[in-house]
Specification:
The complex is a heterodimer of chains A (330) and B (391).
Chain A lengths: L24 H39 L2 H4 L3 E2 L7 E2 L2 H32 L2 H16 L2 H26 L18 H25 L3 H9 L4 H12 L1 H17 L2 H6 L18 H7 L5 H33 L7
Antiparallel strand pairs in A: 1-2
Chain B lengths: L10 H6 L19 H25 L4 H25 L1 H35 L27 H31 L5 H12 L3 H16 L10 H26 L2 H9 L4 H12 L1 H16 L3 H4 L20 H9 L4 H30 L4 H16 L2
Helix pairs in contact in B: 2-3, 3-4, 4-14, 5-8, 5-11, 5-13, 6-8, 7-8, 8-11, 8-15, 9-10, 11-14, 13-14
Classes of the chains: A mainly alpha (330), B mainly alpha (391).
Chain lengths: 330, 391
């Protein structure tokens, strides 16, 4: 604290004095505590990465680079373990891509409805409804998909297979079982991703400049013309960011996938067939097994950690840029 | 509007025009609202496409299932809508109508599965819910006993303890981080904010795996503090809660007018005093909202618990030793059992979990709305939305 020299010095011009603000002890503690919290957050992520690497070392040592190129995951007693993450990684990416493919159009259009089509009152209701949707535990979606929705999707899978086999992912081996497929898991996961994408894109669309929107309407544009020429170009960064964010969530989605897929690693584009697994689902299913498997799980978890971290970093950068008003060329 | 004299006399104005000739005011047109004709056309399109698809589906293909049927019906309906609108109003209006229809139905795609999910869980879970569910555990209950036997008290106690412990860890840390991000001038604010964003997208199973890797493998012995127990679970949960709390609080802190801070500083208070006496009390409701949202997030997390608290069939009220059950684990393990009674038990747990989450969410809304003016309310709503976008 600076003290004020109260002695009146008459007409003499007061001396210039340097204004100092030395931090008090409380201030120093405050600064220490807050930066400490920042460091903890920073350190936590580093620690997570480090310890996953440490625990996964055993697998990396025994498997070498084969870990990244092998599809199978065999840990049987009496034989050297053959652990590979490729099949699980492929499953993770496929399920996430299916989920995002469904969720991005639906989420963006719902966001458009909320921001530009709905009445003011409906807009408020729908906005908090989307928040509520995002708060519903994924476990509930998981058991719904596991015991109900999954079976309802099987006829759709069969129909897609019968009429869409010109599209390679829809092909199956003859007489293949269609339950427990990547497609079903992807549809269920998409239901969990839609609220996130809707929330992000809604926020970006809501910031579209009102003047330009009104100008588009005043020039005689239809509502759709206004949306297409003003709102969508403006919100492009938000759409990309929301899609990435949704992708990150879909990559890490665990419980629903554990329940829906058999968690047998496979490398296949045939999304309608039974089988396959994802990293998170596999890890959850093998919780509490022998040390060799656990070390493999740590290695797989590390791959997932890096993958989601990168996706989320890209997503938050894109969203932050689109929020600050700078256009994103993506 | 003013040249009414030349216009044909409005019926309404003639009836009212007793003593004071009123200007014929054009009746207000609501442009956005559909006319009855449009409604009829939409209905007709829906009906036509339904019948067409039904005929084709019934005659030419077999066993397409209601989902595929719905999809084909929807596509045909869109085509019909576009074509009729094009016939009546031209291509521009037709694409406008088509876009409005698609966008409106996307919102239905948001609402319908949710309502269905809620309905399904209520229908499956509510019938077996007895008051005893809150009093008994699963000790001595055999898989094929009726679903009403035993209860989930052990799971509820476990959930309560784990979430409270997690809150004890993550609330101070989250608050401090939010203050760090918003009230200090550190150079590291940007990287930390990005990391918090990244952390909020961290798969929750990684949090469980991490606690397992760092504590349970290294120091864990059965029955001790670092073995499988509720405390480990709460540590993992606090990692998943931390970003939710931090982001919600941070957004609220950002809304506090700078003038308040400046007047506190101008009165000679230190930064710490300013945060403690001005910023945090102003943000009190926001902090409460963040706590409730954090709880809602953590109470439904299942994946991190598989590696940390492991699950148990009977009451263990001590979170610091031996495995412990919690509601999500109770649901997850029961639903996977082969017996129908177990599945029903799982659904009862899911119903209770759903009630908990919904009421927590309602509470967050209520707290966020109370004690704040309408000007702040919209801001808070935005804050809730931002916290949601990267939960």
């Amino acid at each position: 604290m600076t003290t004020i020299d109260a002695a009146p010095t008459g007409r003499a011009t007061p001396e210039r004095r340097a204004v100092e603000d030395p931090p008090t002890r409380v201030d120093r503690i405050f600064g220490f505590a807050t930066s400490g919290a920042g460091v903890v957050v920073f350190g936590l992520l580093v620690l997570i990465g480090t310890f996953l690497v440490l625990r996964a070392n055993r697998t990396f040592d025994s498997q070498g680079l084969d870990f990244f190129t092998r599809v199978e995951w065999r840990t049987e007693a009496g034989r050297p373990a053959e652990i590979g993450v490729l099949g699980l990684l492929a499953g993770t990416v496929i399920v996430a891509l299916i989920a995002v493919t469904i969720a991005v159009p639906v989420g963006c259009m719902a966001a458009l409805y909320i921001t530009t089509y709905a009445h003011a009152r409906l807009r408020g209701i729908l906005t908090s409804f989307v928040d509520l949707l995002a708060a519903v535990p994924s476990l509930l979606y998981g058991i719904w998909g596991f015991l109900f929705l999954g079976n309802q999707i099987v006829p759709l899978s069969r129909w897609l297979n019968r009429h869409g086999s010109w599209f390679p992912p829809f092909r199956t081996t003859p007489e293949a079982q269609l339950t427990g497929s990547f497609f079903i898991a992807g549809v269920v996961v998409s239901l969990m991703v839609i609220p996130i994408i809707t929330a992000v894109t809604r926020e970006v669309f809501a910031q579209a400049p009102a003047g330009e929107k009104e100008a588009a309407l005043a020039l005689g544009g239809s509502q759709w013309g206004m949306v297409r020429r003003v709102v969508l170009p403006f919100g492009r960064g938000g759409i990309v960011g929301g899609a990435m964010l949704g992708l990150g969530r879909a990559l890490g989605e665990t419980i629903a996938v554990t329940l829906l897929l058999s968690q047998t690693p496979k490398l296949s584009m045939r999304i309608l067939e039974n089988g396959g697994g994802t990293i998170s689902g596999f890890v959850a299913q093998r919780a509490g097994s022998d040390p060799v498997t656990v070390s493999g799980l740590m290695a797989a978890g590390l791959v997932l950690f890096v993958l989601t971290l990168l996706t989320n970093l890209v997503a938050s950068t894109v969203i932050a840029r689109s929020r600050s008003g700078a256009g994103v060329d993506a | 509007m003013t040249a009414v004299e030349d216009a044909p006399v409005d019926l309404r104005s003639t009836t009212v025009a007793g003593d004071r000739p009123e200007r014929a005011r054009p009746s207000r047109r609501r442009v956005a609202v559909k006319t009855p004709t449009e409604r009829l056309v939409t209905l007709g399109c829906a009906l036509n496409s339904f019948l067409l698809v039904w005929l084709v589906a019934a005659r030419l293909t077999s066993g397409m299932g209601w989902l595929a049927f719905g999809l084909v019906w929807y596509a045909t309906f869109l085509a019909f809508t576009y074509l009729t609108a094009r016939e009546q109003d031209g291509p521009v209006a037709a694409s406008d109508r088509l876009a409005a229809t698609i966008i409106g139905s996307a919102t239905a795609a948001l609402v319908v599965p949710f309502a269905w999910l809620i309905g399904y869980i209520v229908v499956r879970g509510a019938p077996a819910l007895r008051f005893g569910f809150f009093l008994h555990d699963q000790a001595g209950v055999r898989p094929d006993d009726p679903a009403t036997a035993g209860g989930g008290a052990h799971a509820i106690v476990g959930s309560l303890e784990q979430v409270s412990l997690a809150l004890l860890v993550s609330l101070p840390l989250g608050l401090l981080t939010a203050v760090f991000l918003n009230e200090t001038r550190s150079r590291w604010r940007r990287p930390v904010r990005i990391l918090i964003d990244a952390m909020s997208g961290l798969p929750s199973i990684i949090a469980g795996l991490f606690i397992y890797a760092i504590l349970i493998i290294a120091f864990g012995h059965e029955g001790e503090l670092f073995g499988y127990d509720g405390f480990m679970a709460s540590l993992a949960l606090s990692i998943t809660m931390l970003p939710t709390i931090t982001r919600t609080v941070e957004v609220v802190l950002r809304l506090i007018p700078g003038g308040l801070r400046e007047s506190a500083l101008a009165l000679g208070s230190s930064r710490a005093r300013m945060v403690w006496s001005v910023v945090l009390p102003t943000a009190r409701t926001g902090v409460t909202t963040s706590v409730v949202l954090g709880i809602a997030r953590a109470v439904g997390e299942t994946a991190p618990l598989l590696f940390t608290s492991f699950g148990l069939n009977y009451m263990n009220a001590n979170p610091f030793s031996f495995p412990q059950e919690s509601l999500p684990l109770f649901v997850f393990r029961n639903v996977q059992k082969p017996s129908q009674a177990s599945i029903d038990r799982g659904f009862t747990g899911a119903f209770v979990l759903l009630l908990v989450v919904l009421s927590l969410f309602a509470l967050a809304r209520l707290v966020g709305r109370d004690r704040t003016g309408s000007r702040r309310r919209s801001a808070r709503r935005r804050s809730a939305a931002t916290s949601k976008e990267t939960p």
